[in-house]
Amino acid sequence: RNMNKNHRVPSSRSLSAVEVKSKFGAEFRRFSLDRSKPGRFDEFYGLLQHVHRIPNVELLVAYADVHGDLLPINNDDNYLKAVKSANPLLRLFLQRKEEADYTTFGTDSLTRKKNTVLSAVLLRPDPNKKKPPVIISLPKDFRPVSSIIDVDILPETHRRVRLYKHGQEKPLGFYIRDGSSVRVTPQGLEKVPGIFISRLVPGGLAESTGLLAVNDEVLEVNGIEVVGKSLDQVTDMMIANSHNLIITVKPANQRNNVVRGGGVGGGAASGSSSDNGASYHGYLPHGAAAIAGPTHIIQNFSVGELESDEDDEDVVIEMGGEAETIRRTPSNYSMPSLPRYEPHLNLRTATAANSGSAFSINANGNLRGSGGSSGSLTNTNASSTTPSPDRAKERRNLEEEGTVITL
Amino acid sequence: TMKRFRRHGTESQRDRLKQELFQFTKTVEHGFPHQPSALGYSSSLQLMAIGTRSGAIKLYGAPGVEFMGLHDENAAVTQVFFMPHQVELVTLLDDNSLHMWTLQSHKGLSELLEIGRFLLTGPPGYTDISVTRVTAVLTHSSGELLLLGTEGGHVFIVEVPGFRELEEMNISLDQITSCVPDDYIGRRNLEHVEALQENPVNSNQVAIGYGRGLMVIWDLDHRCAIRHIPATQQLESMWWTEDGSCILSSHNDGSYCCWTLRTGDEREEEEKSNVPYGHFPCKAINKIVQLPTAGGPPFLLFSGGMPRASYGDRHCITVIYSKTQVAFDFTSRIIDFFVTRDGPQHTVFGEPSALVVLVEEELVVIDLQTEGWPVIQTPYLVPLHSSAITCSHHVSAIPLKLWERIIAAGVVQNTQYSKKPWPITGGQNLAPDPPQRDLLLTGHEDGTVRFWDASGVCLYPLYKLSTAAVFSADADLNDNMSQGAEGEWPPFRKVGCFDPYSDDPRLGIQKIHLCKYSGYLTVAGTAGQILMLELNDEAAEQTVEAKIVDLLQGQEGFRWKGHTQLDVREEPVLFPPGFQPFTVVQCQPPAVVTALSLHSEWKLVAFGTSHGFGVYDYLQKNNVLVKCTLNPSDQLAMEGPLSRVKSIKKSLRQSFRRIRRSRVSLRKHHISNTNKIQEANARLEAEQAEMEMAPVQRKIEARSSDDSFTGLVRTLYFADTFLSDSSHNTPSLWAGTNGGTVFAYILYIPPVEHRADEALTAQPAKEIQLMHRAPVVGIVVLDGHGAPLPEPLETAHDLARSPDLLGSHHVLVISEEQFKVFTLPKLSSKMKLKLTAVDGSRVRRVGVAWFGSSRTEDYGESGLVFLTNQGDVHVLSLPHIKMQIRYPCIRREDVSGIASCVFTKQGQGFYLMSPSEFERFSLSTRYLVEPRCLVEAPLP
User: Fold this and answer.
1) Which of B697, B767, B827 sits opposite A405 (nearest CB)?
2) Across the interface, do B697 and A238 touch by the CB < 8 Å criterion?
3) A312–B764: do the CB atoms touch at under 8 Å?
4) WD repeats located where (chain B) (predicted)?
5) Is some CB atom of chain B closer than 8 A to the CB atom of A310?
6) Among B931, B875, B868, B928, which Cα is nearest to B897's?
7) CB B649 within 8 Å of CB B388
């Protein structure tokens, strides 16, 4: 979330030169860089092509960081980071872009076999380290995909999930239906109509986060209760909020509820933690509080939060000029824009100790049933996101029953 | 919150102002009641009553005199009777309940009120439901008794208005059978009571007709049968002639008999049995009426009786007078009929003047006193749906000159109608004259546009424009066949105008725009045709120019799979006085026109389809602009979805036709009712089971630019505003699409002296892509005072409406989900109001209206009126787009009602509550059009 962190310079290491050892195929090149004036990434890229004498080859540049993790260099920021953190050697691994095996950055660390071709490429300073190889996608592709919020104020049986759509190609990917649930009222148990998640589209955002499941009851959409609203109304509300959808559900499976522990990030024992309200307090606009309206309930996200910046980014094109986003006239709230990234690779990645990442991520995986996760990062390359065809088919068989009537 | 700290005073002040400006009232229903099921008439009150299958009861008298009531039971009204010489009426519902209604005066106005209800229980011991199931009702001339004939064959007598059963007076089946010779009855049942009639000259005598055919004359005083008439055919109806000398009976086999009642004779001889359309088996004569005339033979009228095989599907009423016989052939099933009489009021013994026939889809009134029995044009109850309504357009405050010209054009069209005044004249219309002349234009499936006087309570037809003549049609033969040839038997004559079967759906009117100042009209249709018309007081023969506009603009790889375009006639066509077309702009592909706007000052018309939009200069007869909005990947838009809709519609139409042909008489539905209920229940259960098996799902997905029909043009708007810089206002065109895009063009229009020869240009200026991508349904430019820009030519006619060109203009973009205000010319987002994200409703219809304060004459403000898909109407303040009021208006399930809604400039609205009825409502405290009338009780 806060890219500024990337620019923090480790002051202890300001030696004047950085030794670079660059490997392309079987060949090595060695050269040095001025640590204080490393230049821009594109200059560096040109330099690499030059020293390897491969002027027209598109390259994927990666380096081994202090932990031995293979991290990409593809922009000024991570280039700077790589240079600053070189201690003292900067070990580079170059691959042809067209040949590059992207799974280097995206294989599920838990299932990945160690002796793949690419793991051989990885240099490990300490091969005895028990830590599994951590596979990290390109930093420029990191962005929040979903989060559990407001854990501190919601009943433990409820879960408030935020899905970040950010104009990406990946579909939200779920369906809702009418149903009924049993509520405890002062008059005793009562059967009341409710809205339920009826289906998750394989490979969709909703499914990939693992935070929503079939038969979860939808209680609120962006802070507004759905009680008394028709299926169509709730559908329209969700679609209208689709760029920044916050839905409060009562999970059908109550075994993976977030257990409230001592503060943010607590509850590691239960395998879950939360990107909860605390992380949002910083954005609370001055004077903003609960939105007016009878159906509003207490929540930690604010008006400004709901009115995500993207929502206002209607595009105005001046004919004969450049496209520009609409300037918002000074408003009573400000929220730093979330960096927008190009969609790229694949698969969900849970990672620990990702020093280069702008986001704090918890390491417990995000598959439902493996312990509810909080912040999950997902990539959007459809081809690799889709599970193997067989699995997908199997799933479809399971989930596409019934008549689907769409609007 | 901010609200909490706002000063209390301003809040309450605004609340008070809101009360002065806004109120929601449903005021009057225009058109023809949906599914009428019963007809009643009071000759003393000169009022007609119509009951419907949904339990409504509507009373009509002189034009403007109308009342409406609704039974709580929601059951069909099967019979309606006025109490003789009173202001009360009795209704019988499908659920066997009886209801007493009255017209009560309150502050000088009459109101229709239900004052009593009654369920016949019969004396103790009767347990069978059929015993008390009412099949015939007689309101006794004393005004104190109701005779109720039942399915079990008994006649119960009830005192009104209190509904007290007079057990001792009941006429039981046993009492009847005891006085009828055994040889008639044998072992057969007399069946239910089919008809009850009072002797017009002796109120103590009533005739009871049984289903089996037997008729018995009963003396109420002596409580005994006087005579019996042993007809052998199933009885359908009875009529006691006014001199009391004869009883006519009509029968199931298409025959009628006249029974002369000679005093002293115990057993009556059947004078003659007549099968008017005989030889071959005939259908039942459902009702028969005979009325005397002063100096000649009587009128005989009966419904039905047609030869079963050849004409069994006709809905006919035969009128026989002297040597003249006409079988009036109606457009739908006959519900009931009555005949009005001339002469002094409060007597029924006048000359028959008009035959009033209620059929399922319209009311037809036939003048019986004018040679040739012409039809009298109805001032109300007009079948709006004579061809299905496809769109409507409302124009407020029509200048007198235009109004008179439209009326004149309409008069020429209506020469076939009788000159006689409307024969139903009861009550007084006390409503003040409407403050202005309003026009409602309805577009229909058959390519007609009907002009209605919508100023007052009666929605009166003024003029009908047909666009079909512009195009070469394949089949115009049907009309010639409909009129009966000389010597045809039965002597049919088609009456009525209900004709929902359009032969070419491409003719359907989709959009209408009338400029009330210039008399220019543009209408656009289903096959991409846009007609420009001009009002001409004289008939004119002219060639209509056709101009093709290719909206695809070279987009390749598409094949239009929808309908073909209509071919414009190349030879000159003679157009009658009225709106005459001079140009047809034909869009290619010929997709349905989805947006239309006329600017009569600039002489431009803008039009849009699912493929793009264009601007046509109807002075130079040139295209000024063509823009393709089609998303290259949008195959669905290319295919022409209407081709599919059309085919469904076509098959529906065919099946309706089939049903219509095969429909048999639905009388005696009380017998089949249990079957119906069982059927309905089974259907309901099946539906429920289906629901449980496969619940309806809704996909949750963000809209994307790849969605289908994102290029469909939803709204077009001309505005003179600041689009290029903030010091020069220029003409501009705005277009909004289904995908949330707004295109703005600067139009260069030459000065008046060069307007005819200098070229017009349109230059793209701005484009907004709304991030939420919801369809743009409206665009309004607000002037420096925050008021919506005036209509074209409005300023020229009323200087008070000059827009403020000094302050900064804003543009309000209305999507289905949000309202957003942008500054001009920079298009910075200034304000917005989210609707869907907050309550899940979406904007369906929108309009700008002016609301005047009810307290002070000089205060008023503009507001944005809109209707959501949930059926609620809202008013937003302008320019601050703040919610003012919200009222539930239409059931959200009533999708066609919601789609049909139009708003007026004075904060009223119309929507189709059924295919044939407009509900009128008002959001304004100042502009209300509602019936205000008085009906006084007749003198004793």
Assistant:
1) B697
2) no
3) no
4) 435-453
5) yes
6) B868
7) no
User: How is residue B751 annotated by DSSP?
Assistant: -
Cis before A88? omega within 30: yes
| Percentage of the residues of chain B whose pLDDT score is greater than 90 | 66
Confidence (pTM): 0.78
- Tell me what pLDDT residue B701 has: 85
Residues facing residue B208 across a β-bridge: B196, B216
Among B694, B772, B840, the residue with its CB nearest the CB of A237 is B840
Q: Are A146 and A166 in contact (CB under 8 A)?
A: no
* Average of per-residue pLDDT across B191-211: 93
Q: Which residue of A has its CA nearest to B771?
A: A314
Instruction: Judge: A316–B767 Cβ closer than 8 Å, yes or no.
Output: yes
Q: What is the pLDDT of residue B135?
A: 95
A224 touches chain B (CB under 8 A): yes
Question: Do B60 and B357 touch, CB atoms closer than 8 A?
Answer: no
pLDDT (tens digit per residue) in B570-629: 999 999 999 999 999 999 899 999 999 999 999 999 999 999 999 999 999 999 999 999
Residues 6+ apart with CB under 8 A from B866: B814, B843, B844, B845, B846, B847, B873, B874, B876
Average pLDDT of the residues in A25-51: 87
What would the mean pLDDT of B253-264 be, rounded to a whole number?
85
* Among B243, B265, B246, residue whose Cα is nearest residue B257: B246
Omega before A336 within 30 of 0, i.e. cis: no
Work out the minimum CA distance from B608 to partner chain A, whole angstroms. Answer: 21
Q: Which site among B4, B691, B698 would you substitute to test the A interface, given the most A Cβ atoms closer than 10 Å to its Cβ?
A: B698
CA distance A80 to chain B (A): 35
Structure tokens at A267: 């509850």
**Using a CB-CB distance cutoff of 8 angstroms, which residues of chain B are in contact with residue A243?**
702, 771-772
CB atoms B837 and A237 under 8 Å? yes
**Count of beta carbons in the 10 Å neighbourhood of residue B927:** 22
Of A165, A314, A402, the CB nearest to B770: A314
Question: Would you say residue A111 has pLDDT above 90?
Answer: no
pLDDT band per the 50, 70, 90 thresholds, residue A264: very low
Task: Count Cα atoms within 13 angstroms, Cβ side, for B104.
Answer: 9
Instruction: Please give the average per-residue pLDDT across A85-103, as a whole number.
Output: 78
Q: How confident is the model at residue B515 (pLDDT cuts 50, 70, 90)?
A: very high
Q: What residues 98-117 of chain A have any CB closer than 8 A to a CB of chain B?
A: none
- Chains A–B, number of C-beta pairs less than 8 Å apart: 151
> Which structural domains are found in chain A, ordered by start?
17-99 (3.10.20.90), 146-255 (2.30.42.10)
Give the closest residue to B629 by CA, choosing from B530, B464, B523, B739: B739
All residues of chain B having their beta carbon less than 8 Å from the beta carbon of residue A242 are: 700-703
Q: Which residue(s) pair with B579 in the sheet?
A: B535
Torsion of CA A142, A148, A150, A155, to 10 degrees: -170
Specify the range with the lowest mean pLDDT, choosing from B454-458, B577-581, B793-797: B793-797
Q: Do A316 and B764 touch (CB under 8 A)?
A: no
Classified as helix, coil or strand, A303 is helix
Q: Which residues contact A15 (CB under 8 A, 6 or more apart)?
A: A35, A88
pLDDT in tens, A160-216: 999 887 656 778 889 999 998 888 888 888 888 999 999 999 888 888 888 899 999
Q: How confident is the model at residue A115 (pLDDT cuts 50, 70, 90)?
A: very low
The CA distance from B43 to A350, in Å, is 87
Is the Cβ pair B698, A319 closer than 8 Å? Answer: no
Task: State residue B282 phi and psi, 5-degree precision.
Answer: -115, 160
Determine contact: A15 vs chain B, CB below 8 A.
no
pLDDT of residue A117 exceeding 60: no
